[in-house]
Design a protein that fits this description.
The complex is a heterodimer of chains A (110) and B (116). Chain A has 110 residues and is mainly β. Chain A has no helices and eleven strands. Helix content of chain B is 0%, strand content 47%. Chain B is mainly β. The mean pLDDT of chain B is 93. The chains are: A mainly beta (110), B mainly beta (116).
Chain lengths: 110, 116
């Protein structure tokens, strides 16, 4: 079983839609959680951190449920420029490696 | 430039050959990571350096893979006796400290390796 599981999609949504991505992780000792964004044939870049209390950055909201080992990302009012792959990332208790999910592909259409 | 620099950007080689991939991290970043990303997959951790030493090499798939960082800056990933399954994008990342709590790694654009 992979440490971080994501629905690969693709998610095709119209501009202005709200879309939610989910992710589960297997190691209950995991300490930190993040969402990264990766554009086609580009490098991954940090989108935002995820906290149990929830974390909002503009149109993006991330949430962590430690009891269920579940992470979510909500994007409101989708823009064409949001089209990308969203990677769920978990940092293990060793503090070194970030473990990435396979990514969820989002395509926002006009 | 100010970002992580990786060379070559593309490398095509034949099965059985030796390849070296180079990473020049952001100046002052003590932590350096190598990841491998295959098509349709997320980045897969290979090795982490803190300074000159490999603090965690648990992700290296086998002994054909080796990485060095002799002066605590530039790192080289070395792959011996390449196999077709080694074809992937090899990503290097750096961070100012071992990530701290921000989780932000700064990735290079990657070296795309194709083994024929």
């Amino acid at each position: 079983r992979k440490e971080v599981e994501q629905d690969p999609g693709p998610f095709n949504v119209p501009e202005g839609a709200t879309v939610a991505f989910n992710c589960t992780y297997s190691n209950s000792a995991s300490q930190s959680f993040f969402w990264y964004r990766q554009d086609c044939r580009k490098e991954p870049k940090l989108l935002m951190s995820v906290y149990s209390s929830g974390n909002e950055d503009g149109r993006f909201t991330a949430q962590l449920n430690r009891a269920s080992q579940y992470i979510s990302l909500l994007i409101r009012d989708s823009k064409l420029s949001d089209s990308a792959t969203y990677l769920c990332v978990v940092k293990g208790h060793s503090g070194y490696a970030l473990n990435f999910g396979k990514g969820t592909s989002l395509l926002v259409t006009p | 430039g100010a970002g992580v620099s990786q060379t070559p950007s593309n490398k095509v080689t034949e099965k059985g050959k030796y390849v070296e991939l180079r990473c020049d991290p952001i100046s002052g970043h003590t932590a350096l990571y190598w990841y491998r990303q295959s098509l349709g997959q997320g980045p897969e951790f290979l090795i982490y350096f803190q300074g000159t030493g490999a603090a965690d090499d648990s992700g290296l798939p086998n002994d054909r893979f080796f990485a060095v960082r002799p002066e605590g800056s530039v790192s080289t990933l070395k792959i011996q006796r390449t196999e077709r399954g080694d074809s992937a994008v090899y990503l290097c990342a750096s961070s100012l400290t071992p990530q701290g709590n921000t989780g932000e790694l700064f990735f290079g654009e990657g070296s795309r390796l194709t083994v024929l």
